[in-house]
Design a protein that fits this description.
mainly alpha
Amino acid sequence: MSASRTARERVRAELVREITDIARTQLATEGATGISLRAVAREMGMASSAIHRYFPTKDDLLTALIVDGYNAAGAAVEAADAVCPRTEYTTRWLAVCHAIRDWALANPHEYALIYGSPVPGYRAPQDTIAPAARSTIVYGRILADAHTAGHLNAPDICPPPPDILATDAQAVRAVMPGVSADLVTRGVIAWTAIYGMVSFELFGQFNNVITHRTEFFDHNMRSLAYFLGLPPQTPETQRFR
């Protein structure tokens, strides 16, 4: 690769970063529907036609923001799991649950973009699938690891999933290899419950209702750990969460 090409690529990467940074500011002030390529170009001192070399349409810019958001959330979850002892499955579970909440509270507009209401008229391309799966893969790996070690024993408190859900369970099992259909279904219930809790807090449904939100979230995540059949934490790992 020539030096001139490398320099051009660095310049392009820097411009793309600047464009997406400005668009994130717009996202915070105007919402996803208010993002404007023309306004971004104006703030950068570029001709509106020039910005189309980097993002041909507004949807392309939205996709970049969505991919960045999913990757940032996934990185936060992966980092939280990485510092926990591998055999402390409940500790890992609690760490990643709190990680997604912490990331959402620090980045509410990006969370709303990827986990809130769909943007009218926007259809996510294939490019978003792998970034969106990063967090889910971590949750699934924790359950699969606990299952493989013989430490995933869900209490008998739920009816078995109906047979019609077997195909759905099979589709999700890719991130939970070896786990039974019942536990896969419980995993999806728990996964959606995490984001339901975070969304209720972030979007104001807990206002004037729940005051001690960190403690409430932690209690709910511990309850989900029991629902999933994860083992109790040992005293030595309480410090991780």
